[in-house]
Amino acid sequence: MHRYNHFVAVFLSVALHALLIVFAGNFLGRFISKPEAPKAEEEVVFLEVTPASPQKTLSTPPDPSPGPAPDPTPVSRIQAPQKTAVALPAVDRQPAFMDAPPAPTAQEWALAANYTLKNSKRYRYTWGQQVRSMMGRAIEGPDQGIVRFRIEIAPDGTLARLETLWTTSQVAENLARKAIENMPPLPPTPTGKTLIFEKTISFQPFDSDGPPLYKNDCLPDPPAFRNPFMWDGKSPQVRTVPVPSEKPDPAALEECLKQLPEDSIEAEGAHDKRQLEQWGSSKLGR
Predict the structure, then answer these.
(1) pTM greater than 0.85 (yes/no)
(2) In the 3-class helix/strand/coil scheme, how is 169-198 assigned residue by residue?
(3) How many domains, in total, are found in the chain?
(4) Cα–Cα distance, 200 to 180 (Å, whole number)
(5) What's the sign of the alpha-carbon dihedral 123, 124, 125, 128?
(6) What is the CATH number of the domain that holds 147?
(7) What range does the domain containing 257 cover?
(8) Which of 138, 152, 204, 256 could, after both became Cys, cross-link 218 (CB 3.0–4.6 A)?
(9) Are 113 and 190 part of one and the same domain?
(10) pLDDT tens profile 100-134
């Protein structure tokens, strides 16, 4: 019983203290609470913008202060030197020229008349040299040029037909035709048949028809190239087989090589030049 009374007394003491603390907090909060901030009042401001008044001009201009007296001597301006073109002395440049080659000799014509290989190759070259020798000097200028003919020569050596295929100079063509008309009598053709060929005559101061090479004349001509994949799109597609080149008879080849003339250095150089012009590349520089 004593313990129960003691517990009740402690509980009541704690409760009373708690009530006192709560009451004291509420009482002090009323006096210590912060005052409310005043509410901001809204103000309306009107602005009136007026243009600035123009400045008043003076009725009389101000009296200028006397300045220093001007120098009576005028100042001369320094002029830049004018560029004058220096006249170079005129140089009289002589146009380039090339004299006509000598006419073929009777011995050269005799050798050409007996050479039957490659469509009478030596006869055709000698004929071109004869024409060029009768055209005179080629001078640099508008009259220079080249002309290409198709020629037919009868078995007795007389001219049967002359046709101009193209030309770059009318003067060169006229000179060549005049030379052909006035050519001396020529020997008969090597084969005894009509000789048909095409020939280019150069009438220029920097180009001449060099002698041909004869060392390969005994070999057969390679077969003409035909594209094996060519097709017109209509006919049955058939792939053509290239024709192999013919092999010459060893005995006939040995006999043919005996009649070949000896090639000159000029012939080798002319052959290399023709190959370079035909197969050379301007992009590769060679």
Answers:
(1) no
(2) CHHHHHHHHHHHHCCCCCCCCCCCCCEEEE
(3) 2
(4) 13
(5) positive
(6) 3.30.1150.10
(7) 210-227+245-286
(8) 256
(9) yes
(10) 999 999 999 999 999 999 999 999 999 999 999 99
